[in-house]
Specification:
homodimer; alpha/beta; Metallo-beta-lactamase, Chain A; Rossmann fold; seven-stranded mixed beta sheet; 31% helix
Chain lengths: 404, 404
Amino acid sequence: MDWKVHKLKEGIYMITMTDKETRFFEALWEIPEGIQYNAYLLFTNDGSILFDTGPKGSRGFMEALSSVTDPKDVKALIVHHMEPDHSGYIRELLEVNPEIRVISHPISFRLMNSFYGITPSSKTEISDGMSMEVGGERLRFFLTPWLHWPETFVTFIEGVNALTTGDIFGAYSINGDFLKSSAGLSDQFYLWSMKKYFVNVIGAYRTHVVNAINKIKRLGIYPELILPAHGIAFYGRDSLERLLSIYENWASCSEKNEVVIVLTSMYGFTEEIAREVSAFLEEVPIKHRIFKFTSKGRDEFSEAIAAMQDAQGIIMISSTYENSPHPIIEYLADLMEKKLCRGKKLLLIGTYAWGGGSLATLTNSQTMAGFSISKIIPVNSMMTKSDRDNIREALREMFELTRF
Amino acid sequence: MDWKVHKLKEGIYMITMTDKETRFFEALWEIPEGIQYNAYLLFTNDGSILFDTGPKGSRGFMEALSSVTDPKDVKALIVHHMEPDHSGYIRELLEVNPEIRVISHPISFRLMNSFYGITPSSKTEISDGMSMEVGGERLRFFLTPWLHWPETFVTFIEGVNALTTGDIFGAYSINGDFLKSSAGLSDQFYLWSMKKYFVNVIGAYRTHVVNAINKIKRLGIYPELILPAHGIAFYGRDSLERLLSIYENWASCSEKNEVVIVLTSMYGFTEEIAREVSAFLEEVPIKHRIFKFTSKGRDEFSEAIAAMQDAQGIIMISSTYENSPHPIIEYLADLMEKKLCRGKKLLLIGTYAWGGGSLATLTNSQTMAGFSISKIIPVNSMMTKSDRDNIREALREMFELTRF
C-alpha cells in the first residue's frame, strides 16, 4: 500500500496508507473511491506515542513509521479499537520493540490475544475519563462504546490540543488533502464520503452515536485538531462542534431529503413503474435518486443505503421471483433493516406475472418490522391506467400532497 | 443482439440470438459466459410455424426471421411459456402479421395481455396431450407445468421427429456449435453450463422436474432433434433418454461429488480456516472447490450455487457481522434454501471477535430449515490448536472418515 507521512503541527504527524485494492469494505460495501487508514505519531520529551497502526495483511506501515522515527523510540501505543484495519501492525511493532507500553481498553487486550496471539509485556488498561502523562504529554481517554466496536474510545491530547477519534468522523475516499477546515465540508466536498461511511459502517449503532455525542459535548474541550482513523483530518476549534452536529443529524435522521427509489428488474416492467414514479415526483417537484439492480448491471449497495439515510421516503419496486420478492430486494431490505433509522416511510410496489403480490411477504417478515409501510401495490406486469392511478394516489398520501 | 439462422434439417431452422450484454440473468446470476435464445421455424406445405420468439427489449429477431421467411408467411406461433426472454417479439410479429394463429396454454393468453397488451385475433388454447395438424404438420403438446413457469409445455413435431423443450435442457454460454450429439456432453464440454442453468433457474422446481421426466418417458417418443430455447440443440434418437437421465440425476441430487467451501472474509481469519479445512480434505483426499466473498473480490454466486448442487457436503465459513452471520452468507443461505435439494449436509464455522457464535442464528431461522447441519463451530478469530482439532473432528464426522 502507498503511504505518506504528513506533519500536522510541531510534534504531531499523520501516517496515511491508501488502499485502492479493497473492492468491498467489510467484504460488503463497494468502494471504488478507495479508503485510507490513518495513524498518528506524537513526539514527547521521552520518545514518541503512536496512535493506532495500519491494516492487517498490508505492507508499508513499518516503512512509513520508520521514515519519521526509529520504531525503537516509540514508547507507547494507543489502540483505540481492535478492528484489524487499524490493529494490523501491533504484532510486528512489538517484535521490533517489545518494550512499547500498550495503552488500551481491557477488551482490546483480550482481542489482541485472539486476533494475533499477542500479550504485550507492558500494558495499561484505560477506563472512562482516565487521564495520564506519557513522556510529559497529558492524555485523556473517553469511552465511546459501540462506535462501532465495544472497546472503542477517543483520546484527547492536551499539549497539541488534538482529539483522536478512531472510526468516528472517518470517511471513504482517497484525497490529496490530509488536513482541512471542517468549515469547508459540503455535499460537493467530502461530506458524502463521510455519510456513506457513517451509514455503511456505523449506521447500526446510531443510538450509541447519540450517547457519545452528548458525552463528548459535556467535556467542554475545543481541540484544534480532529484526527480520525480514515480520511481527512480537520483543524479549527469549531470543528468538533460542527462534526458532532453533522453526526447528530445523521444519527437522529432529522433530515428529510431526496426520495430514494430502488428497483430490481428482470424484464423491464419495474423500470416502467420507476419512470412513472419519477415523472410524478418531478411534477411536484420532489428530488429523488434511482438505484437499479437489473440484468444489465447493478448500482452500488453502499451508495443506495447511504442515500436512504436522509430520504424522506423510500420506494421499493420489486419483481416477483418464485412467489417472493426478488432476492436482491430481500438482501437490500436486510441491509436497510440493519443500517437505517426506524420509522422510515416506505412504499412497496411489486410486479407479478402469475403469482400474487409478493411484497406482502416482505412486510410479514421480521426484516421490515422497523419501517412505516405506507402502502403495498401489486402490479400485474405492465401497468394499467388503474395501476398508474393507484401509484399516484399512494405517492400523494405518502408525501401528503394535496395539490397533486 | 447478434443473430444467426441455422438449418437443422430439411424444413426446420434454428434462429439464435446471442446475448453478451446481460450481466445478471434474472437480475441475479452472473453470466460472463453469456446466453443464447433460440426460436425454431418449421416450413409446412402452407407457410411456416414459428416456435417462440426472442427476448423483450432486444433488437434483431425480426431481421433474423425475415432472412429465412417473409413474416407474412408465418401461419402459426407456438408460445411454450411466456417468460419475456422468449416472448419479446409476439407483439411486433402480430403487428406485421395479425393473421398468425397463436397456439399456447390458456395462462399464456392472460399473460400476453398483462405483459404486452396483446389479444391475438386467432388463438388456440392447448391442453395436455392435445394433437393437431397445422399446414399438414402434426404437432402434439405435453404440459410440463412449473418448468419453470406454470403454463410451460413441450411440442413434439411428428414430421421432422423433433421435440421443442423450451427452457428444459437449456444452458448458459454462447457456443460456436448449434447442433451436437448429446453423447458428446461431458464435464469438460457444456454439461457445466447446463447444470448451472438448471440449478440457478429451474432448481426451485425440482420436484416438478421429476414429474415431467416420468411423463415424457411414458410418451415413448424418440425424437431425432431436441430443441431447447437456450444453448445447443441436440440430435440423435438416444438424446432424449440421455438428457432425461441427466435431469433426473440433478433433480434427485443422487450425485455426491466435490465438497463446496464458501466463505466471507473481512480480515482473513476465515480464509485461514478454509486453508485448514482444505488441507484436511486434501489429505483424505476429498475433492473440493472454494468460493470466496472477501474484501478483495467475489466469486460468482451463480457458480457457487451450481457447484453445491452435487456436493456431498457444504462447509460455510462466516465472519460475524454485528452479531449476525455476514450479510453475504445470509444472502447465500437464502439462495441455497431456494435452489438446492433438502437434506444437504452442512458444516457451519463462524469466526467472532467480541460477539458469540453468530451462525446459530442462521440455523434458528427458517432459511436453513431444509439442511442437515452436522455441526456449528464458533472460532474466536485466530484458530487455536483446539479449534483445529474441533474442525478436523467435525470433518471426520461429516464425511464418516474413520481412518483420519
